[in-house]
Amino acid sequence: MAQTDAMQDILHLELANALHISTEELNLDQSFLVQGGDSLSAVQFLSKCRLRGIHIDIVDTVQCKTLAELVERIISKHESNPHNLILNDRVGNSDTSTSSSSSDDAASATGSDSTDTVPDVRLKHLAQDPARQIESIGPCSSMQNRILISQAVNSAAYQCRFILRIKSSVPDSLTASHIANAWPRIVARHSSLRTTFLESETRQSTFDQVVWTEVNPKVTILQDEAQVKADGMLNSFESGSVPHHMYIYAASSSELILRLEVSHAVIDGRSADVLLYDLCAAYENQLPDTKAMPYTDFVRMEEESFQDVERIAGYWQNYLRDAEETYLAGVGNKPRAGLHTLQDRVDIPAEEARRFCDAYGVTLAD
Predict the structure, then answer these.
(1) Positions of the region Disordered (predicted)?
(2) What is the pLDDT of residues 87-116, one digit of tens each?
(3) What is the pLDDT of residues 212-269, one digit of tens each?
(4) Which fold has domain 1-80?
(5) Beta-carbon neighbour count of residue 100 at 10 Å?
(6) Which of the residues 171, 274, 281, 332 could staple to 287 if both were Cys, CB 3.0 to 4.6 A apart?
(7) Contact of 130 with 120, CB cutoff 8 Å
(8) Secondary structure (DSSP) of 12-27
């Protein structure tokens, strides 16, 4: 009981710190978001608590309807999988001390002298033989972290939908099964399509990305367009599953419609073109046997480049030297004083929009 009370006091204190209010102002009958919290403050709360030996899921922080429910859920999970509480304010902040503490806690929680790291322990819940079934595990990029945090708040956020129309001049030469057989070869070639995400235990990044050696991608062949409409809005992908799903249906004897639903954490506008190119090559049995460059190489390069802050700052100062201030309001900013706006509907042909984007190197997003 004493430890539970101490843990409750710690949670109240760290919640107040994350929300920038005093513990007296903390309203346990309101949710974290209602009291001014957001995804960034949720991550700060999560990090501080983990340094104190309290494991917290960011999803719980933003989904619980009240802080009282959140505190009760955290304590319940802690009692079922106990860690050593750090009750004073002398909390270490180095990766080494955090990793060591987490690994020791994981070993004591399993009741053994196992030398498995925390990621290894968690991966055993997803795979029978992690060493054989997992290609790599590492931190996410800064952009991936932002996307995944947003998806923890709203599962529909940053879910992309690509719809492709494939035509053939020869009737009955296109088959949905042929496309369905080609897609797994694309997934096998690109590590990003074999990736799942876990909240990080031992790294500075918020999430870890786990790349599997083999996956069975979700491919659904539909009968007609009516099934597409019945399927509803974008899918939210379960934790631990690869975040993409391919749907295929025949619009006519010479036309197929492909719909790929995928998390923005594993794809963007540039990589979508690469996947489309490879899909065409796979359909014609011309896909290279070699695998593409692992995404983890990019993350490693990004981490190394971020160490030279002065060089990065100099690049952007030079890049933006002649830029003109925009009249549009930035995120969290108010519009400039004296700015008058007019709202109207403008019909822009798709081909004209595409030429505009190509000319200026921009991507339109809804």
Answers:
(1) 85-120
(2) 443 333 333 333 333 333 333 333 333 344
(3) 989 999 999 988 767 765 555 456 677 678 999 999 988 888 899 999 999 999 998 7
(4) 1.10.1200
(5) 13
(6) 281
(7) yes
(8) HHHHHHHHTS-GGG--
